[in-house]
Write a structure and sequence with these properties.
This protein is an alpha/beta fold. 37% of the residues lie in helices and 23% in strands. A hairpin with a 7-residue loop joins strand 16 and strand 17 (328-332). Helix 1 packs across helix 10 and helix 1 packs parallel to helix 17 (435-454). The longest helix has 20 residues, at 435-454. The radius of gyration is 23 Å and the shape is globular. 48% of the residues are buried. The structure holds flavin-adenine dinucleotide (FAD). The site of flavin-adenine dinucleotide has 37 residues, from helix 1, strand 15, strand 19 and helix 17. Residues 9-15, 38-41, 46-48, 61-65, 239-240, 268-270, 273, 297, 299, 395, 398-399, 427-428, 433-436, 438 line the site of flavin-adenine dinucleotide (FAD).
């Protein structure tokens, strides 16, 4: 019997998690499998890419994940990477926002809520009123901003939530759907009538706050290990241009005309990258995929002598509130966050620029991005020294934007795919934008495929 031919398009963490999980399921089932992962870039990992330069460990994209997604923890366990996990330092719980040109601590409990200048007294009182805030309006899909304003008041929605949304998704809280982007928030409200009550309920069940984790050599540790386990199944510099039917299966046109045949194809690339591949096959599907919007981000990593940084790096870093009108979305004090990010006596700062607030900056030259990052760093933190290390990463379509209507758009994509058996999509354009969501999405897709191929009833390989 010829083994089923599976092609995964994209070797980011979604595609690699999918392929590895399926490979492990096949091995355990003793079932033959022909597996290929096609990656456009000359390297694997997509956004998850870590490099050590001049002694600094620089992340091009994600720098950590929360320990609350069982699929991710199971994957790490299965790869034997548990001993390489590193936990964020306790001081990293301290986070700041830039408001009125000053760094103000984000309240994380009653004591900091009283003392912080991040909010006015009026806003603090309004925030405390949260358990009594009105419920959601019937039949309306609220934006994050509407939800936050209703629950915690306009000032906290603007200063804390909008800034956090820019930090997490580079997006605009006034456009993103709360139920699509932060379903946990709407579930907490639905189940407990209040976010504060929901948090107390979690704590009383012993569910404390999640831990922020990475690996000793950064997030690329995971993608690197996945790719190593997949070996020659992964082909880099293999951009898929288009996909067409071939009998009961599929033909993928790669690069200048090379073809790969498959029984099942899974596109783990961003929806906006999948659309051109499918335009000839199904223009309706392609246009639904194009309906998912993206925000771009530029990352400027700057390494300094600690003595060149006038301010104590005593926390995670800061987020910039919208009224500051900066190109910077936020700055992560990487060397304070995780151990081993900078040599002794050095500090590593990662400046995130652009997002939906300042899309123009993503299109400027690297020198322009470094200038913008340094100028704004000097205004906020007084850092004027020439950096010892500089890296720039530009991600024009960094993060999917689940604007109002996302769930309908997603449903229409999935409905349309039913016309094309053997063709599927997964990844962060659909069910969550974080690293955890990416891994979960890949693993659940592997599970679905395993069921189709072998009627496998087991949970994804752990
Ligand atoms: C700057 C930045 C910071 C982030 N920080 C965090 C964080 O701290 N924590 C967190 O949880 N999440 C973070 N994220 C989000 C996180 O990076 C993503 O959720 C995750 O990496 C997405 O992985 P993916 O495999 O779905 O997509 P990608 O990483 O985009 O991988 C898709 C792959 O498909 C390839 N591809 C595209 N087109 C084709 C084609 N035609 N043919 C073949 N291959 C193709 C691409 O080259 C790429 O390698 C961040 C993202 C960015 C950009």
């Amino acid at each position: 019997m010829t083994p089923p031919r599976i092609v995964v398009v994209g070797a980011g963490v979604t595609g690699l998690s999918l392929a590895y999980t399926l490979q492990e399921d096949a091995r355990r089932a003793g079932a033959p499998l022909s597996l290929t992962v096609l990656e456009a870039a000359p390297r694997i990992g997509g956004h998850a890419h870590s490099t050590r330069v001049d002694g600094f460990l620089v992340e091009a994209g994600p720098n950590g994940f929360l320990n609350r997604e069982p699929q991710v923890m199971a994957l790490i366990e299965s790869l034997g990477l548990g001993p390489r996990l590193v936990e964020a330092r306790p001081e990293a719980k301290r986070r700041f926002i830039l408001r009125g040109g000053k760094l103000c601590q984000v309240p994380d409990g009653p004591a900091t809520l009283i003392t912080t200048p991040a909010l006015s007294w009026r806003a603090k009182l309004r925030l405390m009123y949260e358990p009594f805030a009105p419920g959601p309006p019937a039949g309306v899909e609220e934006t994050i901003h509407e939800f936050a304003t209703r629950r915690i008041g306009a000032e906290a929605a603007e200063m804390l939530v909008d800034a956090a949304v820019s930090g997490i998704s580079a997006g605009d809280s006034r456009r993103l759907s709360v139920s699509a982007q932060f379903p946990m928030m709407t579930e907490m409200e639905r189940d407990h009538g209040s976010l504060v009550k929901a948090m107390f309920a979690r704590r009383s069940k012993g569910q404390g706050p999640s831990k922020l984790l990475s690996f000793d050599e950064g997030m690329g540790t995971l993608t690197g290990e996945l790719a190593a386990r997949l070996g020659e199944a992964v082909r880099v510099t293999a951009p898929v241009r288009s996909i067409e039917r071939a009998g009961s299966g599929w033909r993928l046109i790669v690069n200048g005309g090379d073809t790969v045949e498959a029984d099942h194809v899974v596109l783990t690339v961003a929806a906006r990258g999948a659309a051109p591949m499918l335009r000839d096959l199904d223009p309706v599907l392609a246009s639904s995929l194009e309906g998912v919007g993206y925000a771009g981000i530029a990352v400027v990593a700057l390494g300094y002598d600690v003595s060149d940084v006038p301010r104590a790096l005593d926390g995670y870093g800061y987020l910039v509130t919208r009224p500051e009108e900066m190109a910077t979305l936020g700055v992560v004090w990487e060397s304070s966050l995780f151990p081993g990010r900078a040599p002794e006596g050095k500090a590593l700062l990662r400046v995130m620029l652009g997002g939906s607030r300042r899309p123009d900056i993503v299109g400027t030259s690297d020198a322009g991005k470094v200038d913008a990052a340094r100028q704004e760093l000097s205004r906020v933190m007084g850092v004027t020294a020439v950096p010892r290390h500089v890296s720039v990463f530009t991600w024009p379509g960094a993060i999917a934007q689940y604007t109002v209507g996302h769930q309908e758009r997603r449903a229409s994509i999935m409905d349309r795919l039913r016309l094309h058996p053997g063709l599927a999509v997964c990844g962060t354009s659909y069910d969550g934008v974080s690293f955890n969501h990416a891994v979960k999405s890949g693993r659940l897709m592997a599970r679905q495929l395993a069921q189709q191929l072998w009627g496998d009833e087991r949970q994804p390989a752990a």
